[in-house]
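Dear colleagues,

For the upcoming journal club I promised to circulate an example of a predicted protein-ligand complex. I picked one with biotinyl-5-AMP because it came up in last month's discussion. The inputs are reproduced below in full, followed by the predicted structure.
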Amino acid sequence: MQETRRRILSAIADGPVSGPDLATALSLSRAAVWKHVETLREAGFEIESGPEGYELETVPEYGGPAVEFGLEAPYSVEYHEQIPSTNDRARDLAAEGATNMVVLADEQTGGRGRLNRTWSSPSGGIWLSFLFRPEIPPARVSLLTLAAGVATAETINDFGVQGSIKWPNDVLVGGQKIAGILTEMEGEADKVTWVVIGVGLNANIDPDRLPDEQATSLQAERGTPVDRRSVTQGLIESVDRLRADPDKILPAWREQTSTLGREVRVSTPNTTHRGMATDVTETGALVIQTEDGQVEVTAGDCEHLRPTGD
Ligand code: BT5
């Protein structure tokens, strides 16, 4: 959101402020204040104009300006009612040089999982992609993927749903998938140019609308819909906190995962490993103790054998 409009909203959030006072505080003409207020109204903010001035009544339920308002993280949010894929849009923005952005959509018509699998993205979910240009080598990017998993698990826990992470990037509730993460990047040998981290979180969706039987949603788990604006803000803020404090990512991931200490089968394009998952490395690889010794797997599909209650 444009900075002036952000400042107008915070000024009028706690009570009425007159047009002239706003104009003085923001060094604008009264006509300019009025224009900004109209733009905010068009974006869905209900702004009263009474004898004492302008006052913010309600914030729109969802959308870019709604998520940006009150967001405690320095990202701009681009919102789409419908888009093929927020990851694709974020990649286009990356090519244009953008950074520190979140692309958010109500519905995706071409949502993607890993290995070009389909990600069902009906209206009501939280489908978003972060675009960053971190000053890190490509090998450290998986840490950001792990951070997105931690942030997602933490956020849904804050909304009353106990999730756990299945390596590398699934968030599960009771063994069913509630969220998935797709990281894409461009870079050179020693430095990342950009990274896009897509998070798909089944929020207000009836799982019957999802093709996968092993899927659940926040709404199904809670028995009532969530405020998607608050969940989205919580998720973005949580990712931002972890980015600022990367030493916390691995310990938090180890705490939130249900993969470690489990018998797993991990399939990679070339082979399959079976054994006990014992740890995750600095670069996000899963350490598996197999019958033939210890292996580290950097990418693959992980199956928890002998399921417990995750
Ligand atoms: C993932 O892939 O889990 C990554 C999903 C990332 C989606 C986000 S949404 C925002 C951004 N924009 C995009 O286009 N993508 C990202 P993977 O581990 O490959 O899992 C894919 C598998 O999950 C599918 O083959 C289905 O079995 C299952 N699946 C598909 N849609 C699902 C859903 N909505 N909920 C749960 N499971 C689903």
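Two points we might discuss: The longest helix spans residues 141-158. The chain is about 30% helix and 30% strand.

See you all on Thursday,
B. R.
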